[in-house]
Amino acid sequence: MNDWNTDDLVAADKRYLWHPFTSMHDWCAPDHEPLVLVEGHGAVLRDSRGREYIDGNSSIWTNIHGHNHPHINAAIRRQLERVAHTSFLGFTNPPAIELARAIVKLFPANTLNRVFYSDDGSTGMEVALRIADQYWRLRGSGRDRFIAFKNAYHGDTAGAASLGAAAMFREGVSNWNFPALQISSMTELEALPAEEASQIAAVVIEPMVQGAAGIQLWPAGTLTGVRNWCDRSGALLMADEVLTGFGRTGKMFACQHENVFPDIMILAKALTGGYLPLAITLLTEQIFSAFAASSEAESTLYYGHSYTGNALACATANASLEIFEKENVLEALVGKIDALRSELASVRELRWVESVAAVRIDCGSGIANGSRRKTWSRRVPGRAQPRTPNETDPQRDRLDATFLHHALAVAPGRSSHRVRDRRGLWRKRACQKW
Questions:
Q1: N or C, which terminus of the chain has less Cβ within 10 Å?
Q2: Residue range(s) defining the domain that contains residue 266
Q3: Is 180 part of a structural domain of the chain?
Q4: CB neighbour list of residue 187: distance below 8 Å, 6 or more residues apart
């Protein structure tokens, strides 16, 4: 039985809400009915009209064990019976302590062993930039510039956006952003004059793949090259693993593919298994020690949020990490990655790394009637925008990162038989609708 009044919900949404990264003119158009999602189990979501969908982008890359996972649900209920939130300013709590210890143990000793909590990937990057900037000032250095790669996306808060979001979304650069230099390749990085290199506080990179740019894969060895350049120049290396962390690339973290460890790493999205907002900024003891060396005010990091170290979110993240062990998630990914590779072999264009894929589909290849080619760009959630093949605008040409068939990104550690059963129907609907 469907108890949802979809018409009333849609009308109220259009009357009261403002959605992110969305043309509200298009969203509020009379002929647009957004999907009102009300329920999820495993890789499948259900809307207020009872229709089911594969969670193709795993709820913006957050969900890794499936919706309504019993182990995470139980952990949340247990923590709720104790306390949902207490201040992390001047206090601490067991879930936050346990999570920090568990995360640090995922890395080799004497690499990344300090944890700073924030709320999401953007704020995790924001505090990383603040830490790097203050670190060099505590060291008496004039390093105050950052390097990021073109088409990168590291968040939309002021500092994070200065690394690439402003250019990506054609917003224009604000005067209060961090000073950042955008480069295209390792060649351009290597060509940087020594005088300019000496001013660089940190180089920021999404290891292995640029996600929001349309699953743009880095050439093998890129991360190693950036690490070597940072070692020679003295700059810090920041790895943005907000998207790639927690099994997305076949290993727990993308940096592990080249056995490279940054000075600062940012984790979010899948940290809580897709349940609650939480981010971690990991850093080395060397960076931390510069702040802990003195009780003077200038050695204090004046950054934090009301919900920093939230006990409920940390308990959820602990449960997610436990699932990796209980269900042998990383080991189970191997067969699923092979299946994804095999079943995506016929698509017209494919860019992929392990269980992360961007695809361009020909709808006329036996999937649905007709031979019209369709691709999608992210404009209005729930209403994809078709474009003609000769459109070359780089922003419109970015493909949505989509997990097909087994929805590996949605539930890498769980059975996918429900998704497989719906695969043909999902593909047919996708191509017929647009």
A1: N
A2: 70-326
A3: yes
A4: none
Q: What string of pLDDT tens digits covers the 434 residues of the chain?
A: 578 999 999 999 999 999 998 999 999 999 999 999 999 999 999 999 999 999 988 999 999 999 999 999 999 999 999 999 999 999 999 999 999 999 999 999 999 999 999 999 999 999 999 999 999 999 999 999 999 999 889 998 888 888 886 666 656 555 666 788 999 999 999 999 999 999 999 999 999 999 888 888 999 999 999 999 999 999 999 999 999 999 999 999 999 999 999 999 999 999 999 999 999 999 999 999 999 999 888 999 999 999 999 999 999 999 999 999 999 999 999 998 888 888 877 776 666 666 666 666 554 433 222 333 333 333 333 333 333 333 333 333 333 333 332 333 333 443 333 333 333 333 333 333 32
Same domain, 319 and 342: no
User: 232 and 363: one domain?
Assistant: no
Whole-model pTM: value is: 0.82
